[in-house]
Structure formats: structure tokens, C-alpha cells
Request: fold
Amino acid sequence: MSKAVFRSLFCAIAFAAAASQAQVATAQMPSPTEKAVASAKTKADHEAIAADYDKAAAAAKVEAQKHRNLARFYHGMPVGRGEGGHGTASHCENLAKLSDQAAAEYLDLAKAHREAAADLK
Reply:
């Protein structure tokens, strides 16, 4: 692969990642505020909190996929090899795992608030 083709490909992927990051950044903060959680007393309060956690889980899943895609790209590149073999691809794979874990935690929180809503009349 020529340097010009590599540079063009790298720029295109970097632009796509930046655009994806901008979308995720705006979508990633729907989780409820401390005040909303602390003051939740009604069924509607808990259902709204659960919906916010569902949105946060969806955003975390998007983030995980973005990092998996970047890891695939970096596996074939001589960029960011790092010390001890812990290079950029490993970094992206770790971030994907963490984002998957965050998504699972958000879904557990949503489930807990749905159960709390169901317990209320």
C-alpha cells in the first residue's frame, strides 16, 4: 500500500471515528441525575430513570462497536505497537470490553428501576 493511499485511508477512518465520537458524546449522557434517582418515588419516576439507563446502554454499545472496528484497523497497521505488545489494537479491544460492561450495568440498573416501578401502585 502506497503512503498516499495509507494516508487517505487513515484520514477517512479518523474522520469517521471523530464523527462517531461526536454522536456518542451527545448521546452518552442520558443517564439520570443523582437528584432524579434520590427523589424517585412514583412509578413514572422509576420508568423515566429506566428509560434513561436504556439510552445510556445503547450509547455504550455503539461505543463498544466503534472500538472493535478501530481494533480491526489497528491490527493490520504498524502504528502504536507500544511496549510489551500492548499496542493500539489492545487498547481499543480493552475499551470495547469496558463499554460492553458499562452497557450491561446500565441494563441492570434499568431492570432494577422497572422492578421498583412495578412494585408501586
